[in-house]
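> example.struct
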């Protein structure tokens, strides 16, 4: 018994018409199934293939030998999917000359197989991001703070970064140890001197002043810290600040303060476009294990309009 598909057939109905059976000696299975490749009642088409050796694709085929030693096979048949399934086993040893829709169908089947058999990509684990292995958040925070102050574009980016890095000692150990509050003050002193000299050469007044309001007299409690910080950022001349975080990791970042949040202009990977908002209720100034973030009460840097 021969089985096959019946494409584009909505229904099958039995016939009540009695047909005269042909003698068994006149029946030829090849004549019956010749137009199809295991597909019944499909319109037959002329197909042309180029192969690298003789092979019986179909009883009706004709073979033309090419000058390069390959063979071009012509035959008329139906069953486009069945032929494609067979051609897949030939790999790159067979080329479909015509019709075009046979090439397209084979390409679609091969693409589907390739996608289905594609090995699953290994998920990235414990990726190392910029800043996760080095301790250069201090210079980055300084660059980001000056950008919030609208310093002239020619003094942004690598210039400020280079001035900051050249101001401190201890290379290369500082790459993994990070920058201290003392290092931050030294870097900012160099940046301020360089920026002021550049503005003076351009016959312009340098507009930025940097202060350390909690350095010598830090707040004694978390409540006092936020009260004094509110008083500072209520002033119209305050542009932004840099804060020293101790938990969940030691980190410097530039920020602006709103009523209930700190807007951090950060260089770490988890920020959205370099900016993230941290709720003040999640921050504690001093040691507090239950809070998400802990900042150092002494390590505050404020940028003001001069």
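> example.seq
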């Amino acid at each position: 018994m021969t089985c096959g598909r019946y494409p584009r057939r909505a229904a099958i109905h039995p016939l009540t018409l009695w047909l005269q059976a042909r003698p068994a000696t006149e029946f030829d299975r090849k004549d019956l199934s010749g137009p199809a490749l295991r597909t019944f009642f499909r319109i037959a088409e002329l197909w042309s293939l180029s192969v690298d050796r003789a092979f019986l694709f179909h009883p009706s085929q004709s073979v033309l030998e090419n000058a390069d030693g390959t063979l071009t096979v012509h035959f008329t048949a139906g069953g486009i999917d069945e032929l494609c399934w067979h051609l897949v086993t030939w790999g790159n040893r067979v080329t479909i000359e015509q019709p075009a829709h046979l090439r397209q169908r084979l390409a679609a089947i091969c693409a589907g197989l390739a996608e289905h058999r594609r090995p699953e990509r290994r998920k990235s684990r414990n990726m190392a991001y910029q800043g996760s292995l080095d301790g250069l958040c201090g210079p980055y925070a300084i660059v980001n703070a000056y950008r919030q102050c609208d310093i002239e574009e020619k003094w942004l980016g690598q210039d400020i970064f280079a001035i900051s890095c050249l101001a401190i000692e201890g290379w290369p150990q500082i790459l993994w140890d990070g920058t201290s509050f003392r290092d931050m003050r030294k870097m900012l002193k160099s940046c301020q001197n360089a920026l002021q000299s550049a503005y003076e050469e351009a016959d312009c007044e340098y507009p930025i002043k940097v202060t350390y309001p909690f350095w010598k007299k830090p707040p004694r409690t978390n409540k006092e810290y936020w009260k004094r910080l509110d008083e500072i950022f209520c002033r119209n001349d305050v542009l932004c600040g840099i804060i020293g975080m101790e938990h969940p990791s030691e980190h410097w970042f530039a920020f602006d303060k709103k009523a209930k949040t700190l807007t951090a202009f950060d260089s770490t990977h988890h920020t959205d476009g370099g900016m993230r908002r941290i709720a003040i209720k999640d921050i504690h100034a001093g040691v507090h294990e239950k809070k998400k973030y802990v900042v150092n009460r002494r390590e505050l840097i404020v940028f003001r309009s001069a």
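> remarks
The chain has a mean pLDDT of 78.
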